[in-house]
Amino acid sequence: MDVKFRSCTVMYRDGSETVALSEKKGRMTASFSQAEAALSFKNDRFCGTLKVKEPTLIKEFMLNCEISTDDDAEDLALLKEGFQSWSYSGALGLNDLQRKPRASFMVALQENITNWPTGKNGNHISEMFFFLGNRKTSQGLFAGQLPPFNQFVQYSVIFGKFKTHTLVIRWDMDKLFKSNESIALDELAIREGNCTETLNSYADRVGKDAKVSFIDTMRVGWCSWYYYYTKISYDIIMENLAFSEKNNILFDFFQIDDGYQSMVGDWLNLKPSFEGKMKPMAAAIKKAGYIPGLWVAPFICERKSNIFINHNEWVLKNEKGKPVSAGFNPNWSGSFYALDITHPEVLAHLQEVFRVIKNEWGFDYIKLDFMYAASLPGKRYNQSMTRAEVMKTGCEFIRKEVGKETVLLGCGMPIGQAIGYMDAMRVSCDVAPYWKVKFTESLLNSDSNLETRGALRNSLVRTFMDKRFWINDPDCLMLRTSKTKLTAPERASLYNAVMTIGGMLVTSDKMVEYGKEEMDNLTEAINVFKTTAGGKTFSPDLLKKKIPEILVNDQGFCSIFNFDDKPQVKTINIADLNLLFKKDKVTLVEHASGKRFVLSDSLSFNLEAHGSLMFKIEKAAN
To answer: Would you kindly state where each structural domain of the chain is located, as residue ranges?
Structure first.
């Protein structure tokens, strides 16, 4: 594939300006009325600077390109990356589309609000990186943002009818520049290769450049959310803790989720059942042998909160002075809003919040949710930072306040800006006690809705990030057989995916209702996870399907999935294992039944709708 850089565009607060690129001795330049750009592309590395002549607010710098391919458009797929944890990630082709949400609050909640899905066939967007390649061979072109992730890098790929396609690369800024101020554009790695191999090498490179380190011992735990949601109490937490301790369940952590606080944003104002109980509750969790965990969404507040009512100057505003909506949540008082974390009083407030959570209450594991809100566009107290720099500032601030010894799990967070700050990261939307909800999909017209199917899709696509950026959190394993609409095959698919991924294993049921089946399944899951947690995982069919159907863990496990709504025959080939197991023949031992199959070429299995099988991979006897 060949990439040609044609022109570039600067988007100002009011209007935009496009100029052709001038090239001389391998360097490209562009002169705008209010800025100068200097760019270069050498040894698979694209870099550049933008210098502004006079005080100006620049929203975006855009590079307009053309991609020429040897393959016809219908043979290509774009592996797109979503903006944050919950955003749709997967492979899309010429005749595919990602739906454009109908409601703006859904875009703020699920996507990058400055880079909406187009809702058009063959017109796709991606964040941070993309891979455009042949569906069958998995060979193609990769482009990925490199540290320090000081801008949000966005891509727009429009498939042509033949072998020429449009690529637009955007460096999203929303920054007020001073006279003669220069900014380094985040560099891009641009190269050709195999999809899986380029993703792995990219993640290795990013981890090395960002000097990534993380705590990887907090992997197995319980959280309150997916059974109780906001309807928790001190007694409910203690009841589940007592059950876990009595049955010697080998959790690493025990996490209280949303519902302890009076309002979202008022984190130190507690509901009556938790008043005066946070410190003794954390102490009881520690005494039981677990690390106490707590959920908090530090960068938002709901409209009925004391912060929104009494400190409205802390709330991020738009150009018209209206509060910036970060979304809508029926579990709360409806709309909720972003805080302006460049405001010094907001940081002072958050400093006290984290001091109490960490030092006074004693929580050493903190789940940070709805983190994207810090990066929403708006008229900030300090407009000298890009949106991405604001996001990074928030992460750096929290890490400094709680210390390196505290485990931080990011959720609802832009991917690149979390690297180096989070120990673990949610890489999917929320799982749910249902596979998908057709009514919600048709009403909201979004592909990033919370659902178990979507959680599995993102978790399978983003496996290469695990143990390179952080520990991947594919969200909770639901073992319960009551109060769920998940069928037995769907629960098995969630189980097999979580086991094979080997990132985190978190359950979220009312454990006192567990019968023998659930307890046996949990014990088995923890035992299997001890092996798979040490492995790295990949999907060999990332480009072939919207949702990968094969998952391989280098500790000797693999799973195959049927995401179709009808029973299907699914096939695994020996070539699917070649990146990890370079053998002519292996034995697959089916996990649930113990049945053995020799794989020398290919094997096919009848799978129920939404069903799957997990196998232990063994060396075949001669």
So the answer is: 2-209, 216-404, 550-619
Kindly tell me the sign of the dihedral angle through the C-alpha atoms of 395, 401, 404, 408.
negative
Q: Which residues lie closer than 8 Å to 508 by C-beta, 6 or more apart?
A: 222, 223, 224, 225, 226, 227, 476, 477, 478
- In a 10 Å sphere around its CB, with 0-12 CB exposed, 13-18 middle and 19+ buried, how is residue 459 labelled? buried
Owner of token pair 């798979």 = 532
- Topology adopted by domain 550-619: Immunoglobulin-like (2.60.40)
- ∠58-62-64 over CA atoms, to 5°? 160
Q: Are 196 and 464 in contact (CB under 8 A)?
A: yes
Q: Tell me which amino acid residue 356 is.
A: V
Give CATH for domain 216-404.
3.20.20.70
Kindly report, residue by residue over 262-300, the tens digit of the pLDDT. Answer: 999 999 999 999 999 999 999 999 999 999 999 999 999
Looking at 14-75, which runs of residues are DSSP E strands? 16-20, 22-24, 27-31, 35-42, 45-52, 56-68
From residue 303, give the alpha-carbon distance in Å to each of 61, 260, 341, 395: 34, 18, 17, 24
Residues marked as catalytic: 369, 430
β partners of residue 52: 35
Contact between 410 and 368 (Cβ < 8 Å): yes
CB 303: neighbour CB atoms within 10 A? 18
Q: Is the peptide bond before 280 cis (omega within 30 degrees of 0)?
A: no
pLDDT in tens, 47-98: 999 999 999 999 999 999 999 999 999 999 999 999 999 999 999 999 999 9
Measured over the CA atoms of residue 460, residue 461, residue 462 and residue 466, the dihedral's sign is positive
CA distance 142 to 67: 12
pTM of the model: 0.96
352 Cβ partners below 8 Å, 6+ apart?
268
Task: Please check whether residue 381 is in contact with residue 339, taking contact to mean a CB–CB distance below 8 angstroms.
Answer: no
Choose among 191, 89, 192, 166: nearest CA to 463: 89
| Residue-wise DSSP of 266-306 | EEEEE-GGGTTTHHHHHHHHHHTT-EEEEEE-TTEEETTSH
